[in-house]
Amino acid sequence: MTTTASSSLRGRSLVITIVIALLAAFGFVSGSAASAWADGTGTITGTVTSGGTPLSGIQVMLTLPGGSYVQFASTADDGTYTFSGLPAAGYLAEFTPDLGAPYAQQWWNNQPTAATANVITLAAGATAVADASLVSIEADATISGRVTNSLGNPVEFANVSVSPVNQNQLGYGQTAGSAQTDAGGNYTVSALQADTYTVQFLPPFNSNYVTSFWNGQTDATLATQLVVPDGQNVSGIDGILGTGATISGFVDAASNPGVGLGGGQVYAQNAAGTTIAYGFVGFDGTYTVPGIPTGTYTLEFQPPFESNYAPQWWQGESSLASADFFSMDAGSALTGYNADLTQAASISGTLTAAGSPAGSLEGGSVYAFSTTGDGSGNTGFVAADGTYTIPGLAPGSYTVDFQAPFGDLHAEQWWHNASSPGASTPITLTTGEALTGIDAVLGAGGTISGTVQGKSANGSLFPAQNANVSVYTTDGVLDSAFAYADDSGAFTISNLPAGSYLLYFEPQGDTTDFIPQWWKNKATEATATPITIHAGQTKANINVVLANSTLKATTPRISGAAKVGHTLTAKPGKWGPGTVTFTYQWSRSGTAIAGATGSTYVPTNADAASTLGVTVTGSESGYTTQSLSSASTTAVTGGTVTSAVPTLTGTTTHGSILTVAAGTWGPGTVALTYKWFRGSNRIVGATASTYTLVTADIGKTITVKVTGAETGFTTATVASAPTPVIH
Description:
The protein is mainly beta. Helices cover about 0% and strands about 45% of the residues. The protein contains one helix and 67 strands. Strands 1, 43, 44, 46, 47 and 48 form a six-stranded antiparallel sheet that branches. Strands 2, 5, 6, 8, 9 and 10 form a six-stranded antiparallel sheet that branches. The longest helix has 16 residues, at about 10-25. The termini are far apart.
């Protein structure tokens, strides 16, 4: 099914894409396997076990190495799964047990993360087997402790939340377990797997305590991490809830002073706009915000739901940017922080379709967006008589966007009769103003449709499922229209006003195998080809192929003799597409050689007896940088042994012992051998580092030749000075 969507915010496009990706990621896909592939003939199959026992219901996610979703399957009763219809490519398989199941998530082949996962290489039409054996992790550990206040008194009904530091197993923001304290402040969180956790202590509802973490921190980023071994009870994990500050006051309407305006909320916010604590406005208009830590804050006063009062910040300001801030200390109690909410402004009118009766666009939407770009504004919906009202608007300037109901093909429009947000006429509202007559008549909308495909490193094409297709007007303004590709790669964008547009195609996910592009196969918005649409016109076959972001590369090799003084040259091989820039790093027995970063390298004496290798890194704009290493050379030869002239010590008389002092040889450990000479004649059998003088030596000179040998080095021989034997 081709999915069509139109929105007034770029964020809605991203939200839908994220939702689709999450649905696929957690297995909420119809059928036993959901495929994003159209025409492959290969198969990946396997069996998932633990300790030899087949596991059913294990979620198996197949992706490309960059993270792009391919297929999902769930193991059968016998632990088997199958992915079919796959083109030749490299794949990653992720095996995820159900939440709470006593098994660790893993990637093939027994890898703990996607970053370390092994690639399953599938040839055209082939079948690859990828079995998995999941590690059993029994959820039988516990964390226990006691929660008290700063005076040491127990805190009942405090909530204790335990979250894994690594969220892979549960998903971001999930907790592994929780408990509530009893009257003595005691708690126990059970059924935990062996893992590393943070422990958060949350105050009882509406109490004046400040949320804290173990061990004594109020900031989550500073929380001490707790290692919980398999099957153990980790006790003594106590929490202290410090006393917070409170702020209280009264909320009424400026038009009805002194009469409480109940039903709203009051939020204590820091300078970043993060809500630290909150309270509810009672029916009498009074409120208290408890549990505020020491810091600097402002207050946001939110009116009751569906009332036509404007939000307000302290004191009497219409936005966080202009709000006043004040400091609070732990235990302080500020009072008299009152607010008089003013009547909000509103915009109303009618929305009809050209040539159709009033009410033909019932269910359509009208959006008011602040021109300040802070995201503020509100929405109104078209009633059965064609009228709409946008309530709850603060004074300021707005653009108004008119949209037909979902599925209706009338063109989106901006006030006043504008086809793009950049061309719209802003509307300025004063405090409490009820502006009427903001009417619009929608004409027939245009449609753009086509397909988005990805191109794998080996050239095969497949649907780029969930790819975002965003529409920009030619003046560079992001239009409100977008679509995402369905599981066949098809997309349709409807409700377009007549005009010229630029289309941007972006693969789903933060990491991806594909390179985004502008129509028509352009890298930048400035070079993109516009698409012109007339009223009611359909432009079909806007088809794109997203190039693979992985460079094509071959394993580099080294040419030349691995010998000291001889030049070695790195041969990168064929890389592409386009012009690839290379950098080099030579290594000695696997360790990088400092400064050896050229395409050539001349081995030195330090390399003798070692093997050499080179890593080539290729980079090109728009592609993922890739590094490949060559095979190692044979051991380098041709090194020169450093030697010393040996000397003889001892008395030069008959019967005395002469000893060789060989001196320092190198590098490394050099094996030394000895040959003794009487005059120029070698003394048979004299091969030790010592020699005992005999009668035949009297009147002669004695010399020793020392030979040093080491693998990879040229052997060296050095003779001592002749030593005369007197008597």
